[in-house]
Amino acid sequence: MPLRLPCRNLANDSDHTGNRHGSHTRAARRLRRAPVAPGRTGVTLLHHLRQGLGTIVRKDIDRATTDLCAWTEREEWMVRHLDVLSAHLSPMVDLTGMPPADALPRLPAEIVEHAMVFILEDFFTVRFGTDGKLNVVDAFLRRRGRRQSATARIYLKGLRDSAVSLYEVVGIDRGRSMTVRDLLRGGEPVTVEEKLGSTGVALHGHLAARLVAVGDTHLFTGVVLPFRREASLKLQSAFEEMAAELEPTIRGNTVTERTAEEMRALARQASVHTPVFPPMVIQFWLADAVAGSAPP
After folding, report:
1. pLDDT score, position 271
2. What's this model's pTM, rounded to 2 decimal places?
């Protein structure tokens, strides 16, 4: 039985129109009131863990993420969450000619729900404050971590440190797992335990997602955004430009001698962790959705 999204009505916690850490609370609260039809999020935040993890482990991760979502709704974190939402959805003004609060209700509910969960996950990774040390997962684990199992704490730390990337499906074990290849960072293919998603995914399909390792098992942390080939190529091109711009900085900060190939790999790895990359992903995906061509 697939795990369900534990956060209550994520779509109602949404906004967007400004910089990543700016203050956009008024617009954000307006967007939170935008009507979004309730329903099952296409691929849930907890995702569909393979039975091999065990029912108890799945319940532990479910409970921990539910508790984290409740912690996120505290006022001190809600404002920051809304600012992250604002940064991700601000490009919708250029795409639709309307502010996000007006544009989102015109999109299919499942598209909106996918976007909201994607942005919530990014919020879990963001570090705030002048020293860059303030993070909602860290704060939750300090205060509530003892109530969670060791496996759940590992999962939440992995979620906190995760980076979104673009993957190609290169192998499928229907009803059990899929094997994916990182199109942005390269490396060896990784097998991801994915019970429900593996039943409908297409071989050589492209998708944006986050991966977390729990022991020897790799999991998608939450929502998976399917990319049509054209949109995927556009995102890859924009990413390569970003990495190329970052490479001189990486080279200047590297004390050991590196080959050109190694420097490119370091720049790509750094690029997926930059604050601007997750909003870039959702921008390309929503542009495809607004055009009416994104997969459901």
Report:
1. 95
2. 0.80
